[in-house]
UniProtKB/TrEMBL annotation:
Lineage per the UniProt record: Bacteria, Pseudomonadati, Bacteroidota, Cytophagia, Cytophagales
Naturally occurring in which organism (per UniProt): Negadavirga shengliensis
Family per record: Belongs to the UPF0173 family.
SMART domains named among the record's database cross-references: Lactamase_B
MF GO annotations: hydrolase activity
Domain spans labelled Metallo-beta-lactamase: 8-191
InterPro entries assigned to the protein according to its UniProt record, in alphabetical order: Metallo-B-lactamas, RibonucZ/Hydroxyglut_hydro, UPF0173, UPF0173_UPF0282_UlaG_hydrolase
Keywords carried by this UniProt record: Hydrolase
Keyword match Hydrolase: yes
Protein name: UPF0173 metal-dependent hydrolase ACFPFU_19950
């Protein structure tokens, strides 16, 4: 089983095979996550989908303190190496790598990617994580794309973490279609309510998912779920 804790926006920490894997840490600048203390986070790995500040804000501080291995695309990894992050593993689209907690494949996302200082962040992506107990899709920031069907061709996806805030990414209507494309009925919502642009009607989102035969899980910040 996988224990998943929501840290706000698109940030989660998952315990997988005894390892702690942190995704897209944007915590200290997020007023909604003010009760999350990053000093309490001790990840073994940090997986970053792209370079926008609302996904990388706490990478440097957490990585330096914890010694976690940073996994992202080549450009994001190189940028953090210049900041003194030593434990890194660069990837790019279509590539896969086995880590202590499971196999990770870096897959396509339709979005943009610029690092906080304006440096190019490479092409954005998502991750498929295949562990002994569960296989899941962490979509990152993306539009709906037919490439998602390739994920279902290769993997049996147990659940998917997907953006539902609309405006900058998919909204709930496209997210339920994306769930069909990747072959899962369980969506963990992310990238919503943090900023006015991505505020959503949660009741509408849940009803839309239910009508489409999907389960939409909206965790409170700090809440954990076992999957």
């Amino acid at each position: 089983m996988i224990e998943l804790t929501y840290l706000g926006h698109s940030a989660f920490i998952a315990t997988i095979g005894g390892k702690k894997v942190l995704f897209d840490p944007f915590i200290t600048p997020n007023e909604l996550a003010k009760d999350i203390n990053t000093e309490d986070l001790h990840p073994d790995f940090i997986l970053v989908t792209h370079g926008h500040s609302d996904h990388v804000a706490d990478v440097e501080s957490i990585a330096k303190r914890s010694g976690a291995t940073l996994v992202s695309n080549f450009e994001v990894v190189s940028w953090f190496q210049d900041k003194g992050i030593e434990n890194v593993h660069p990837m790019n689209h279509g590539g896969a790598k086995k880590f202590d907690f499971g196999k990770v494949k870096y897959v396509n996302a339709i979005h943009s990617s610029t690092l906080p200082d304006g440096s190019p962040g490479g092409n954005p992506g998502g991750f498929v994580v295949q562990s002994e107990s569960r296989t899941f899709y962490f979509a990152g920031d993306t539009a709906l794309t037919y490439d998602m069907k390739l994920i279902a061709d290769e993997f049996e996806i147990d659940f998917a973490l997907m953006p539902i805030g609309d405006n900058f990414t998919m909204g709930i209507e496209d997210a339920v279609r994306a769930a069909d494309f990747v072959g899962t009925d369980k969506i963990i919502g992310m990238h919503y309510d943090t900023f006015p642009y991505v505020e959503i009607d949660k009741d509408h989102a849940k009803k839309t998912a239910t009508t489409a035969g999907k389960e939409l899980v909206l965790l409170n910040i700090g809440e954990s779920i076992t999957l």
